[in-house]
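Box 4.2: Ligand-aware structure prediction
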Amino acid sequence: MKAISIIGSTGSIGTQTLDIVRQSDDMKVVALAVCSNVSLLKKQISEFKPKIVAVWNEDKAKQLKNDLMDDSVCVVSGMEGLIAVATYDKADIVVTAIVGMIGIRPTVEAILAGKNIALANKETLVTAGHLIMPLAKEKGVSVLPVDSEHSAIFQCLQGECASEIERLIITASGGPFREKTYEELQYVTLEDALKHPNWSMGKKITIDSATLVNKGLEVIEARWLFGVAPEQIDVIVQPQSIIHSMVEFKDGSIKAQLGTPDMKLPIQYALNYPSRKSIQGERLDFTKLSGILLEQPNRKVFRGLDFAYDAMYVGGSMPTVYNAANECAVTKFMNKQIRFLQIYDVIDACMQAHNVISNPSLEDILETEQWVYSYIHKKFSA
Ligand code: NAD
Ligand code: MG
């Protein structure tokens, strides 16, 4: 029995991970963490019987403790609670399905406790990849990608030698605004941005897909996961989300991984690696495809991608600034405090104003995040 801990069990990745557990006879859930959706957590507790659950919100955690008749479940809260779930001694693997760089500390603590990581929480690797990957190596734990593009690359690399990679080609759907001009983007709404053509995901990543910041984050994520140089990573738009990514090798040969757009496949691959298991769901049917479209991303309009390359080349604390500025800007966009294109202005302003810290420690990263938030508050709240 593989014992699984999920940080973010009520979200899109979290609930799909539980779907996989439900279909598997060799997996069990031992620990869950959520932000505030206690009513769904209660259902998950009664179905999966975890030993420990964390609720970020302290009052809701207290309420849950009162409501649960069963004291075989330990209820914890706050960052301490997240870390308790991430390091729970009976867990073999931790699925990091939390959104945002708040995932850094639990991920680091899980690695220190010797847990393998099924990593969905890309913001953690973008900001702290230079600390996390060496730490995982030192502790002998695996960081297995859940993000579909990185799972695709990981699958293409099986049996291959990392030194023979020429480049990674990350595919992007292009999001709901792929064909829009700069002028048209001035008037798009939150509701428009939340309509992703292929994937049903959490709100933050859906907005990131519309700005192409998600692809920028994935480029930096790939750099750390696969240990390649920034110039070895390319992005191409594949609007149907059928080719999930590709690897070109030194001899010019290209391997791709294809499938329907369904996150259950990469989640299951990470949980069962190196085995493959049968999975329910639609299969790719080539007879129904009219073609597979590939095109260049419109980098002039969707500036989120080039900011990521700039941040990656500068390195140090700059990827943290890119990520934290985006997290803050997306929250403002979701609260209807800024317009869609202003997300880029916020990221740009923060990156321009930042004094880079090279080789930042965990504390430097968290302080940089705070700097970004206070800079945005001063500059954009007027
Ligand atoms: P989501 O918003 O649907 O879910 C987020 C989860 O994190 C929820 O369970 C929420 O309760 C939990 N959470 C948030 N803040 C928390 C806190 N302070 N303490 C405890 N729990 C907290 O997000 P999602 O779409 O599932 O994405 C999760 C991560 O996976 C993100 O980093 C995203 O970029 C990545 N990812 C998602 C998809 C996808 O298809 N949804 C694909 C690839 C990568
Ligand atoms: Mg992805």
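In the box above, the bound molecule is magnesium ion. DSSP finds 16 helices and eleven strands in the chain.
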